[in-house]
Amino acid sequence: MASITVGILGATGYTGVELVKLLKKHPFAAMGYVSSQSYAGKKFSEVFPELKSICDMELISPDAALEKPVDCVFSCLPHAASAGLCLPLINKGIRIIDLSADFRIKNAATYTQWYKTEHPCPQFLDKAVFGMPEHYRNSIATAQILANPGCYSTSIMLPLIPLFKKKGAAITSVIADSKSGVSGTGRSLKLSSLFVEAHDNFSAYSIGRSHRHLAEIDQELALAGAQNIAVTFSPHLLPLNRGILSTIYVTGAGQAAECLEIIREAYAQEPFVRMREPQDLPTIKGVAGTNFCDISATGGGNGQPVIIVSAIDNLLKGASGQALQNMNIMFGYNETTALR
Amino acid sequence: MASITVGILGATGYTGVELVKLLKKHPFAAMGYVSSQSYAGKKFSEVFPELKSICDMELISPDAALEKPVDCVFSCLPHAASAGLCLPLINKGIRIIDLSADFRIKNAATYTQWYKTEHPCPQFLDKAVFGMPEHYRNSIATAQILANPGCYSTSIMLPLIPLFKKKGAAITSVIADSKSGVSGTGRSLKLSSLFVEAHDNFSAYSIGRSHRHLAEIDQELALAGAQNIAVTFSPHLLPLNRGILSTIYVTGAGQAAECLEIIREAYAQEPFVRMREPQDLPTIKGVAGTNFCDISATGGGNGQPVIIVSAIDNLLKGASGQALQNMNIMFGYNETTALR
Amino acid sequence: MASITVGILGATGYTGVELVKLLKKHPFAAMGYVSSQSYAGKKFSEVFPELKSICDMELISPDAALEKPVDCVFSCLPHAASAGLCLPLINKGIRIIDLSADFRIKNAATYTQWYKTEHPCPQFLDKAVFGMPEHYRNSIATAQILANPGCYSTSIMLPLIPLFKKKGAAITSVIADSKSGVSGTGRSLKLSSLFVEAHDNFSAYSIGRSHRHLAEIDQELALAGAQNIAVTFSPHLLPLNRGILSTIYVTGAGQAAECLEIIREAYAQEPFVRMREPQDLPTIKGVAGTNFCDISATGGGNGQPVIIVSAIDNLLKGASGQALQNMNIMFGYNETTALR
Amino acid sequence: MASITVGILGATGYTGVELVKLLKKHPFAAMGYVSSQSYAGKKFSEVFPELKSICDMELISPDAALEKPVDCVFSCLPHAASAGLCLPLINKGIRIIDLSADFRIKNAATYTQWYKTEHPCPQFLDKAVFGMPEHYRNSIATAQILANPGCYSTSIMLPLIPLFKKKGAAITSVIADSKSGVSGTGRSLKLSSLFVEAHDNFSAYSIGRSHRHLAEIDQELALAGAQNIAVTFSPHLLPLNRGILSTIYVTGAGQAAECLEIIREAYAQEPFVRMREPQDLPTIKGVAGTNFCDISATGGGNGQPVIIVSAIDNLLKGASGQALQNMNIMFGYNETTALR
Fold it and tell me: Which of D200, D281, D282 faces C285 most closely, judged by CB atoms?
């Protein structure tokens, strides 16, 4: 199997370090560089001491990174910054896996509406492929620009897309009540991210129709057949490091058994979707540290909504794990390499 | 102010020890006894070392407790056991504050349906008063049997009852997605309650229409004006000790502002309900260790449900705090004594 | 009982908010002001939403605070800043309770050596009283400047002072292995204080002879009779919010039983020291939320050190609780007011 | 490379499930069986849902397990039970890796003194090899009975053995203050293991000279050259799942730099010992999820002890990881297989 060399932009955030850990287990992907604006010049293992003797590579500046010849670049930069910095790489023909939201939204105006900024390179939006292997595997294989899905979005869309494909016309409302670990808020210094503030606490934020992941959820569910559905989405912050559990209430989809069957059938061949029984609901412990999305459902009938419960590790299937899964597809490796 | 003497049955569970801590701050309530089947003969502070020099009283057996003359008995026993043991006390005319579910449900058949057991003394169900001070204050004042509400139920019903009273006919569905700390599952030895199992975990259980608190939620919301509403209720387990946050989706109730105004007006004089602004949602940290219920709401309009967020400390406003608030009302003390 | 009015400088840190909570329960101390440089103009309950309807007072700037007539000022400011800002208040004759280290060290040169800065007002060091009620109660009663002890120091010195008073000549070495909750590091934005960094983690820092609390430990133990003892002190960071547990190894002090007896006798009348049995060692849960210091000891004999275990709540007996205890003594209130 | 088949006795405890996860990544070790008395008949993934589709093998009873032909058996049973059940396997010539304490102590009387029970097969104690690869690699390679070291012991002995080998005569005292995550107490139902009891708590237990791991610590340090040293050992319980950090105070060993150099030299070729700088002390986060032991040291001089800090994952280097490392040596695989 041919080997590739990869670079990571924004390597010192939580998704960056997770990618490094995964790539170090990959037999065919060599680390070309790890880059960081603020830590350039330091060893990666100085920033993350747990990686001593695993990744002692020196971090380089983004400017230096752009000059390095690699086969694939993962961008773990924030939105807007990410597309801006990737632009010259795209022009050079390097394959990009962007973990930010920049290439997820097909419509530049929609992007601006949700992200409050002009898109740095709207001309490439059409070219970008939405990186959900379960639904875009063929396009991913040949993509130059891969838009890795959001963490919440992954947990919500994986169960819903097959459902909308089969029952899009019948479904009348969707409420996604999601709970995420604190690593989802990133490694930047914010009062609400302090241990003393988040520990022994639980809170809702950006609930209703305000969280940015709704942009991609709206887009992808519409493509799956959603008709005039504006998903109600309530993110919450859990006092733990990693994991997302979404409790999703679907009205109009009939009974849970039927919905479960539709989802099970859609994902029968998928290596990273595990269906659970209604009496054995997914948990965060069940997926933390793995690239799995666990899904189950219960309820429905007697006017009750079907209740879907899905769980992922927000840093793996919700970010770096899915990104590596996409890389495996893009470069022809076994899709589960370094992920099981 | 006249003093009273109180006893506690089942004092070595989490609600029992919480009651002891509150009562120790009460200037007019003397501890007559603390009782426990399994720890009888030990000092209370041997079971809960943090209470050394605060409550070193010896625990007595339930049999011995029944003989003790007191003005008021708190029962922290499990359902069925509680009503059974309280029966002779009721017959003696002692005032009972029952923290179990035994006297909450007016209809004995409904009780049996949800709790899978015959009610030990259905003849007293009519006499019992549902102990939600905000709605039954006058009846509480003279009650002999006080049925203290459930923890989840309190967090769900406090915001919903005023809403149903005003808009009962318009509301078409209610989904309550609730998250509770582990103390809500009690102090008994269960694998799922082990630290290693619950830490870094988050899970749903008994979701849909299966959790027993639905019995009292159905009953009280019907009394408030709910018409053919079967609340969808999804409890979840949070990796923290105390606190419940409920995210409640109400369809048909109009806009959040209007709903908030209705709730605010209903509770304007209430000492333990705090209304928050839509941009300042309740959190568990905001209520832990207090007897407050914090409430806010957002959303509604454009086909979106109103989203109500409420938070309580499950051991205080959700159990022992509310029980003491009820005791204060029953015996004519200032309602906030030992609670603020 | 005469009432007093108090002000708090630096009220928006963790010791400040804790003081506010305590003072709100005090029947004789009215809140004159809460002050903060960064949050001036905001309501206190906007910064700490859990205090809504408990303390909605507006925060004022330090400049404005200096003009306010009050009987007593608590300074929760950082070292150096604290003495500097308190200087005009001292000159006005206002009684000061300083929670920083500024007035703890009698020798200005020693202060400079440990705190790497000139003391802002060395002329007042003599006048300041070290605020450990168990050992300086009489001086505290009349103090104008009260130096509230450090959190680690309190947990270490409370058991050691009586021991050194009786056996100072015999003790040959002391090792204090201390573990503190994250609130001890303050509310400022540091990477190591982020939830994701501190959760599921445990680490040592400033171990050996480098932590600043050694300045006051050295000073006070010398006064108690320590001869040529340089305590080895190893602080560690626990993944919890509040509490300190110190495991202290004392060589040369004989057997645990004898040591325990000496400590027990010294503190027989103390309201906030609880002696525990060797088989019932102090725990953080046992003191969190209280102003107690729990102490026990085991070991000794056969060349083994006596092992003392002590536990306090770092924000209460280790800071704001002890500060209020000192205020009670200074103004003639019952020492336990608002603390039990 | 030849493949082997392995069995696991007591597979449903925390060390058992950890072993299964490791073995599933091993290219040459096939799972022959997983055995459990209490869960026999269930699928492994029913007991540990996170392993669905990873290990769905059915658990068999110990009796059935004894009949199964395998190359190697890991025993994760409790002490006494372990040796008893392994006896027939030993007699059959099967190679045993025992994670219990049963084969660690060479002297049957010492075993009985610490473990309060007769040894089930003292005749095999001589034959057993203490499974610390860094010191017994050659004997491990040919061992039939492998005694896997205890978790605390590993964290304490790894830094101390080289030190005693070089400076055994000079060292006059050792105090090991160790802190372990809750998984170290096992998966059995105990009040102190409940989430609500252990969360937000920290406590010492079995301190001084009472914890059973002292039996193997005494034995191995004596072999390394300790002269009349009775290590003082204080275990503590941390509110996290996995990890041990030991802070070890050594008197008489000179300066930290010298000690670090001795340890560094001893482990220069070791794949699972990482030396850290004095200003970069080991942390639990730095080793959790890995088979590394991180070691650093500071202090010494001026009458101060050298302070060694070591950290391991108690379930990996402290149990199942080290067990697999031993298996790799015993069967001639690369020592790091499935461990990096």
Answer: D200
Give me chain C's average pLDDT, please: 97
Report the C-alpha gap between B101 and B10 in whole angstroms.
14
Domain boundaries, chain A: 4-149+318-330, 151-314
Length of chain B: 340
CB contact under 8 Å between B281 and A204, yes or no, is: yes
Chain C residues lying within 8 Å of A18, measured CB to CB: none
pLDDT in tens, A95-126: 999 999 999 999 999 999 999 999 999 999 99
- The model's confidence at residue A340, banded by pLDDT at 50, 70 and 90, is confident
Catalytic pick among D55, D72, D121, D151: D151
| Maximum alpha-carbon separation in chain D | 63
| Residue A109: its H or E element | helix A108-115
Q: Which sign, positive or negative, has the C-alpha torsion D274, D277, D280, D281?
A: positive
Q: What is the pLDDT of residue C175?
A: 98
Name the class of domain A151-314: alpha beta
Q: How far apart are CA C25 and CA A95, in angstroms?
A: 63
Q: Are A310 and A246 in contact (CB under 8 A)?
A: yes
Given a cut of 90, whether residue C340 has pLDDT beyond it is no
Q: Name the residue type at position C113.
A: Q
Which spans in chain D are helix H? 14-23, 44-47, 62-67, 81-92, 108-115, 133-142, 151-167, 195-198, 213-224, 256-266, 321-330
CB neighbours of residue A92 within 10 Å: 10
Packed helices A151-167 and A256-266: angle between N→C axes, nearest 10 degrees:
110
Confidence check: pLDDT of B98 > 90: yes
Q: Which residue has the tokens 């006080």?
A: B146
Q: Which residues contact C22 (CB under 8 A, 6 or more apart)?
A: C320, C321, C324, C338, C339
Q: For the domain bounded by A4-149+318-330, which CATH number is listed? A: 3.40.50.720
Gap between the Cα atoms of C316 and C308, Å rounded: 21
Following DSSP, what letter does each residue of C213-238 receive, concatenated? HHHHHHHHHHHHT--S---EEEEEE-
Reported as a single tens digit per residue, the pLDDT across B224-262 is: 999 999 999 999 999 999 999 999 999 999 999 999 999
pLDDT band at A182 (very low <50, low <70, confident <90, very high): very high
Contact C274 B52 (CB under 8 A): yes
Res. A1 pLDDT band, cuts 50 70 90: confident
pLDDT score, position A179: 98
Q: Which residues of D touch B190 (CB under 8 A)?
A: 189
Q: Kindly state the average pLDDT of the residues A83-95.
A: 96
Give me the interface pTM, i.e. the ipTM: 0.97
Query: How far apart are alpha carbons D316 and D14 in whole angstroms?
Result: 10
